[in-house]
Amino acid sequence: MTVPVERSRSRRPVTWLTLIGVLLLPAVIGGILVGALYNPTDRLDNITAAIVNDDKAVELNGQLVPLGRQLTGGLVKGADDQPSNIDWVISNDADAAAGLKDGTYTAVVTIPENFTSAALSTRPGETPERATIGVETAPNARVVDGAITAQLATTASTVFGSELSSQYLTNVFLGFTTLGQQLGTAASGAHQLADGAGQAATGATGLQDGLRQLSNGAGQLATGAQQLAAGTGPLADGAAQVAGGATALAGGTREAAAGVGDLAGGANGIADGNQALATNVNALADRIPPQFAQVATDLSKAAPQVNDALVKAAAALQKAADDCTGTPAQCDALRAAAADANAALPQATATVTQIGELAGEAAQLPAGIRSIAEANQQLANGARGLAGGATKAANGLYTIAGGIDGLAGGASQVADGTRQLGTGAAGLSSGAAQVASGASGAENGAGQLADGVQQVASGTSSLADGLDTAVAQLPTYTDAQAKNLAAIVADPVSANGVSDSLFGTAAVPLLAMAVLWFGGVASYVAFQAVSARSLTSRRASGLVALRSFAPAAIIGAVQGLLVAGVVQVASRFDWGDWALFALVCVVAGVAFAAVNQALVALFGGAGRWIAAIVGALALAANIVSTVPPVLAGLASLLPTSPAYASMLGALASSGGVGAGIVGLVVWAALALIVTTLVVVRRRTASLRAAAQPA
After folding, report:
1. pLDDT for 290-337, tens place per residue?
2. Average pLDDT over residues 139-143
3. How far is CA 312 from the centre of its chain?
């Protein structure tokens, strides 16, 4: 059965078989392309790739860490959100090279032997090194096979690296918390040390005041003893005179008794003076605070403890500086503080030791003063006894005249005792002066002690404040917070909406445009672009052109519907979007038929060659954005450009559908005008030219 359509380059009519072939050609080509390329990630198991793990495990904290083995397992297992994966084969270097050469493996991923050591090179004391893996693709692999393999390997490496970075950063953030806790403990100890040093400074100031009072009292004691020594001289002389005149006064008993009475009065005066001196010394001892000796003793005993605390504080600060894992500025501040503390430590410990020695000596002062007071009291008691004896002697002289000789001997003894009393009083004065001088020196030392301890307290307080500032500036994290923050810092930027499909939304309009264009080319491979009966036809030239266009236009419209149907079966777009896409396909099929008719009518067989170039250029310009600007500019002027733009707008909701349809209509109208002009020219040609097929 035949149809009344002229065959290209033949006068035989076109059969229905030819029409069906031309009609189904774009649908078959489109179905093959879409079926082969759509959603390739669902069929990754058709790709066989080898993994060569040459990595050597590294011992970390007593355990072997085989990161290469873990990465191999991650590649083989695939991702949880990926339903399929490449068919991975764990191999060795020789087998992988042979399989890559004979085509058994599409690609080979090699994990080098230093992978684990490089990945763990971020540990302290090691030189950081980046862990890398190698990807090699077979020479006979498909175009995109290597890209798919490399992308999967790169993604796995990136995720694996992010996990390592996250673990490292987690330890760093938790280290901040530990460092803050340690510095907080050191700050608490420094505060306690500062408080103790402040109390010691207060005690040293009290010691200085007590020593000042002791010095003043000892000076008064020295003055009184000096006066006592001066008063005993005349007493001794008088006793000597009594002894010398006792024999001569044998007859003057009453005069001797009177003299002895005077002696008794002088002895009472001496007793009163000694009693007053003892009272003054006891008063001086009472003015010394009761806790003075205990405070001085405690201060002497506390000196080694203060030195130990200073040494431990300096060591703790040095350890915190050595273990610092914070920012460089924070670590430098800690190291500077540790250096200052270590530099000041010898002077501080020496000062504290001197303070302890002075405090130990000062603790003996109250007991010495009490001993002096007891000696004066004994001297007063002796003088009282002397006065009583003299009184008895005077009474005896009134009754016993013969005891005058004994009185002379006693008077001589009294003279000697009085001289001894003067010597003792002079010694007491000298000792009291020495006590006063020593107390004054001790007062100056106590002042220096108070100043030194105050400096220690001030420096320790500054150290504690600095540690508090460091603790306040150091962040603290819980385990959950550290892990969350480390995950974000290890991978701070993510992209949403990025498709991992190699056959995206833009590929469907591109393939549809291409197959419809070549469908139009095929139509005018089978059909005549200009009827061979145009010279004999009575119809107008425009109608003659439309008569040759009508079969291809109908076929182009049906091709558009078929291609749209194939796309919907494979892609399952929204029905509203698909209906608009189908409309654009129909318009494109009709417009492409008109343009191909004009090309063949105007250029003959060369028109089909030009149409093939147009199709190739349309594909090349829309596959990748790196196409040269010249080719992109040419492609934008072709009739395929509005078709692709309107199809893409229909499926991707990017707009431009109306403008694209208008562009296709304009191209179809221009093409029909060109074909009509060719028909007009053919009608004026010679009979020989009219007889030749187009």
Report:
1. 777 787 788 788 879 888 887 888 888 788 888 888 788 878 887 888
2. 49
3. 29
Q: Are 201 and 450 in contact (CB under 8 A)?
A: yes
Tokens 């070549």 — which residue? 518
CATH number of 171-474: 1.10.287
Q: Are residues 434 and 245 in contact, defined by beta-carbon separation less than 8 angstroms?
A: no
Q: Which residues contact 28 (CB under 8 A, 6 or more apart)?
A: none
Name the pLDDT band for 662 (thresholds 50, 70, 90): very high
Distance CA 340, CA 335 (A): 9
Say which residue the tokens 């006891």 belong to. Answer: 282
138 φ/ψ angles, rounded to the nearest 5 degrees? -65, 145
Structure letter (DSSP) for residue 58: E
State the Cα angle at 33 between 27 and 37, rounded to 5°: 145
Q: Please name which of 3, 1, 2 lies closest in space to residue 554, comparing C-alpha atoms.
A: 3
Angle at CA of residue 97, ends 93 and 103, nearest 5°: 140
Mean pLDDT of 58-66: 78
Compute the distance between CA of residue 127 and CA of residue 564 in angstroms, rounded to an integer.
60
Phi, psi of 58 (to 5 degrees): -120, 140
User: What tens digit of pLDDT does each residue of 209-221 get?
Assistant: 776 786 777 678 6
Pairwise CA distance, residues 619 & 613, whole Å: 10
pLDDT at 599: 92
pLDDT exceeds 80 at position 338 = yes
List Cβ neighbours of 108 (8 Å cut-off, separation of 6 or more). 49, 50, 51, 52, 91, 96, 97, 99, 100, 135, 136
User: Does residue 490 contact residue 162 with C-beta atoms inside 8 Å?
Assistant: yes
- Confirm if 601 and 674 have CB atoms less than 8 A apart: yes
Maximum Cα–Cα distance for the chain, whole Å?
Answer: 206
Which of 518, 498, 499 has the alpha carbon at shortest distance from 33? 518
Tokens linked to 298: 């405690």
pLDDT over 80 at 657, yes or no: yes
CB 597 within 8 A of CB 548: yes
In the chain, residues under CATH classification 1.10.287 are: 171-474
Phi, psi (degrees; rounded to nearest 5) at 3: -125, 155
Q: What's 223-281 look like in SS3? A: HHHHHHHHHHHHHHHHHHHHHHHCCHHHCCHHHHHHHHHHHHHHHHHHHHHHHHHHHHH
